[in-house]
Write a structure and sequence with these properties.
- This protein has 166 residues and is an alpha+beta fold.
- The protein contains 5 helices and 7 strands; from the N terminus they run E-H-H-H-E-E-E-H-E-H-E-E.
């Protein structure tokens, strides 16, 4: 299997992820949480500066999804004590349905196994029914609900989903 995940460790790849985030999030999240919160979250969590900070200070690993050398999306994972946290998992709308998500998730599962993590955990907005359905098809199950204050009067109302690793 070709590894479609390219580590985003240099400034140009981080800038590419920030650009992808703006396009993908604007298209996907504005109908779910509104433009104001989407813009706030992009600036706070997915700007190039925010991504660099997560890499340097929080041990978050970012990867471009680039099966043919052309960026089609990105993922971010964070090894934690008892799991691998799948922090970000986004594919451009025009590239969905081509098996990229499945291939990327297989590689993330391999990472979890290599790191001896018994589970992959993620959070997903409770109103994001299409993503919840996709994660369910990939074997994730809802384990809890969490509401997180992210500042400026905004909150993330999420399900926690988890998949055990082999």
């Amino acid at each position: 299997m070709i590894n479609i995940l390219v580590p985003a460790t240099d400034p140009s790849r981080i800038e590419t992820i920030a650009r992808l985030a703006r396009a993908i999030w604007t298209d996907h999240y504005v109908p779910v949480i509104g433009k104001e919160q989407t813009d706030y979250m992009l600036d706070r969590f997915q700007s190039a500066e925010a991504i660099r900070s997560q890499i340097e200070l929080e041990s978050v690993l970012y990867f471009l999804i680039a099966p043919d050398g052309q960026p089609a999306g990105y993922v971010a994972v964070q090894p934690r004590e008892n799991d691998l946290f799948l922090s970000k998992f986004y594919i451009e709308k025009s590239r969905r349905g081509q098996g990229l998500g499945k291939a990327a998730l297989r590689r993330i599962e391999q990472m979890a196994e290599e790191l001896h993590k018994p589970a992959i955990t993620l959070t997903v907005n409770r109103r994001n029914s299409s993503s919840i359905a996709a994660y369910s098809r990939f074997g994730f199950r809802i384990t809890d609900r969490i509401v997180t204050d992210i500042g400026d009067g905004f909150a993330m109302d999420d399900y926690i989903m988890q998949k055990r690793t082999p």
